[in-house]
Specification:
It contains 9 helices and 8 strands. By secondary structure, the chain is an alpha+beta fold. Pfam families: cNMP_binding.
Length: 195
Amino acid sequence: MTASERTALKRVTDAIRPLPDPDWQAFEAIWHPFTARRKVMLTEAGTPEKYLYFVLEGVQRVYYLDELHREATIVFSYPPSFGGVVDSFMLRQPSRYYFETLTPSVFLRASSHDLTRLMAEFPAIESMIRLGLTHAFSGILERLAELQCYSSADKFRKLLQRSPHILQLVPHRYLANYIGVDPTNFSKLINSVKL
């Protein structure tokens, strides 16, 4: 891990909850560099998520595929953030979702075995992970309310409020899927929404 990668990981970890030095040293030691080309399936539905990813470069998405092969984009990840199919990772069960790169991507990743071991050994790490998951869960609840109550235009506005740079990062067809509009209508939506 390079110094800049270490700094990025520490900055995001500290934003969740700073770790005491011995805990941080143990935590940073389990992360290893990993790269993937564009459109690589990192996790497939039916297989357990083996890694928690820390995104250094690139854009990825987690999506669901139903029995009629309709896709539902659940979440995007991009730097600097954690990524992967977290429920599968934490519960050690087969994933119900796919995790793929949309662009060439650079990560640090930690195995489920290593992170579980550290959480048992270091209460501060377990507390930081729990707090990070609680923040993620809060975001999911907010997203569920948006899906059920907001118009497409309002969902798009909220997305741009959370991630103003997303239009430059993610291909528009995936953004259309994320907010639940047909890709052919997405350009009309962009032009009609006052930002």
